[in-house]
Write a structure and sequence with these properties.
Its cofactor is heme. Pathway: Secondary metabolite biosynthesis; terpenoid biosynthesis. α9 (about 175-205) packs across α11 and α9 (about 175-205) crosses α12. This protein is an alpha+beta fold and about 475 residues long. The chain has a single domain (about 5-465), classed as Orthogonal Bundle (Cytochrome p450), CATH 1.10.630.10. The chain is globular and about 60 Å long. The chain is built from 19 helices and eleven strands.
């Protein structure tokens, strides 16, 4: 691209070297770090090396299965508000509803309450959209519009002078798209700072004050602040790092999960037999209890298979970029034949080469998943996976997939995302039937893929929704 050499990789052994074994050689691009530092501050997506490892060390326990169980009532409570809002709209019968907006609002509210101990949205129709939600909605399109220029402009901007001088220079640059990124960053930072100050004051007043807040002190940030107080001096995070995690986690969790859920609802609307089978599985459990519990939810094997298959076939982020920081040799698990007829089992890669990690390529590889690898088949997860998949040791943290990456920069919140997907799907599929409209839904390949209607601006997912008895 623009005269640069790029290498597109989906070979599992090569991916293992890129994201696990030699991960310090294959780092995110300078432009990636520059943009994330501008947007999120000193969060996980903006740091490298020892600083990044220190942040992951203190954050990892916050996303443990025990913490997910503890926070799960919030997921159910917020999603039941969504169910009530949709049911209210359907009193007169089936309607076309723009589901992406409702799913996005729900994802942000789940993240707000369980992640930050803060409510952004009451999930009613007449409520004004929170500025933080508006900023998140603008973020991905704005970032996409500067994707090429950021490689040259942002990497320069973040290196010059003090933060105040950098801000002064950014204001002077006559570039509307850059100014939009600046404005989004301002909202994210100001909101995060306000929530952080509130948490810090409550923590200073003791557990009683925390228990009076949303999530009663069990949210991710409250737990993180407590853990940080108890950490040794060398492991403590600075205030800038703590504040940076808030915007980082909100962006990373809200957009990816809401778009994964949108894809799942579209697939269920397309494959009505799968939707019916899922609804029956949920109702079989509800014959013996009035509402789903955390354990019952995790016992829904067909729901789990649907989530895995959606995330295999349609990962929210299809590719990620890495850049070599020194000359490297990349081995291949499946040797290839060069144009000269020679068999190539390893590739020498010069320093500063852009490497494209193909998440979707590995997830859909027919040599691993079989000839039906491009088909939506949840049933593949109800039986042993192909030996080609289990023997090749795909380096992802989740279910032999690259969807959440692997190694030291894998998605730290993938259990949070899984819980949210399952709660939302279980509650809504039990209550509603989702069907296709006559509008053509397409998927725009932004950094995070998003649904749209052919010929219409903006992300959206219209579906026919009706109450089911």
């Amino acid at each position: 691209m623009l005269g640069e050499n790029q290498l597109y990789v989906s070979d599992p052994l090569a991916l293992h070297h890129i994201v696990v074994k030699d991960q310090n050689t294959y780092e995110e691009t300078s432009a990636f770090f520059a943009q994330n530092k501008l947007l999120f501050g000193e969060g996980l997506l903006s740091t490298l090396g020892d600083q990044h490892r220190k942040q992951r060390k203190i954050l990892t326990p916050v996303f443990s299965p025990a913490r997910m169980r503890e926070m799960s009532p919030i997921f159910f409570e917020v999603t039941n508000k969504l169910r009530s809002a949709l049911a209210h709209r359907l009193k007169g019968g089936p309607k076309e509803i723009e589901m992406l907006a409702w799913i996005s609002r729900t994802a942000l509210e789940i993240l707000g309450q369980s992640g930050l101990g803060h409510s952004f949205d009451s999930l009613t129709e007449d409520v004004a959209t929170h500025p933080f939600a508006l900023a998140l909605k603008r973020l991905q399109p704005a970032a996409g519009r500067i994707q090429v220029t950021r490689n040259y402009l942002l990497t320069w901007v973040v290196k010059i002078g003090s933060p105040s001088f950098r801000r002064f220079m950014m204001d002077l640059i006559p570039y509307k798209n850059l100014h939009e990124i600046r404005d989004v960053a301002d909202v994210l930072h100001q909101t995060s700072l306000k929530i952080y100050d509130s948490k810090k004051k409550a923590l200073a007043m003791g557990d009683g004050a925390l228990s009076e807040q949303i999530a009663r002190g069990k949210d991710i940030m409250s737990v993180l602040l407590k853990a940080n107080l108890e950490a040794s001096d060398k492991d403590k995070l600075s205030e800038a790092e703590l504040i940076g995690q808030m915007s980082t986690l909100t962006f990373a969790a809200a957009d990816t999960t809401s778009n994964a859920l949108s894809r799942t609802f579209l697939l269920l609307a397309t494959h009505q037999d799968v939707q019916v089978k899922l609804r029956q599985e949920i109702r079989n459990v509800l014959q013996h209890q009035t509402e789903l519990s955390y354990d019952a939810l995790n016992g829904l094997v067909y729901l789990d298979a649907i989530c895995r298959e959606t995330l295999r076939l349609y990962p929210p982020v299809a590719i990620v970029q890495r850049t070599t920081r020194k000359d490297a040799i990349l081995p291949l698990g499946s040797p290839i034949q060069g144009l000269d007829g020679q068999i190539i089992s390893e590739i020498p890669i010069p320093n500063n080469t852009n490497v494209i990690v193909s998440i979707i390529g590995c997830n859909r590889d027919p040599t691993l998943w079989g000839e039906d690898s491009y088909e939506f088949k949840p049933e593949r997860w109800l039986q042993p996976l192909p030996e080609a998949v289990t023997n090749v040791h795909i380096p992802g943290v989740y279910s032999n997939l690259m969807t959440f990456l692997g190694g030291g920069r894998a998605c730290i919140g993938f259990k949070f995302s899984q819980l949210e997907m399952k709660v939302v799907l279980a509650i809504l599929i039990n209550s509603f039937k989702f069907s296709l409209t006559d509008k053509e839904v397409i998927w725009e390949m932004n950094p995070i893929s998003s649904p749209a209607v052919h010929g219409k601006p903006g992300a959206q997912l219209p579906l026919i929704v009706e109450l089911v008895q």
